[in-house]
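Table 4 source record.
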Amino acid sequence: MPVELTLKPEQRGTLSVYPFEGALEFNVEAIITDRFGGVSHAPYDSLNLATHVGDQHEDVEENRRRVASAMGVDSTHLITMSQVHGTDVIDVEAYRDNLQGDGLVTSTPGLALAILVADCVPILLVDESSPRFGVVHAGWRGLAAGVIASVISHFEDPRTLHAFIGPCISMEGYQVGPDVATHFAAYPESVFADVEDRSCLDLRRVTASQLLERGVLDHHIAHSRQSTDGGELFYSDRAQRPCGRFALVAKRAS
């Protein structure tokens, strides 16, 4: 069965970050950021890492610089992208900007890969048999379209992958209509009837199910117990609009 984790905060400079300690076993350092320790003003206060939500660009740049510093890399080696709720996964072997997609993979040391979320599922994939790792942004659209299959196709053998799933919206906090629920009819254990025609959707369970379907071993999957519900610790688009975005950031450990 997938393992449940409680991510514990660690102070790095002005930031409190939440390491995936299990990834270090495979020589990958990975953290989740929260919404504190940055310079953005309300309603983005304070560590918003997204440029597309209406925040001041210079504040986002300073926030990203602080995250890069917390990861021990130059800000020019922190790689992110414009996320589109699709299935495109980009293989990066050197610094690139103006990327668009929903997943990043690399085998190159010195690069820190980041995906941004505020209720969607942040996923880290680490290959135990190679230097390769990746990060994925998976909302309901990406999960329905096949972003999990897309990122796994960038690795040689899913049985050597280890998946770490970060904080996302809980099943109880994620009410959807039939237009969304119908995409997950194949996962009845992840869709629960609510009032009238509404359902509650468990994105975390759908993610784990799709990882298993694609060959990742169940005991290689770990997920955070924490959720984004309420938006107090991690940004939540359901709780507040507009809002910032927090990140899953990973690099090959020194």
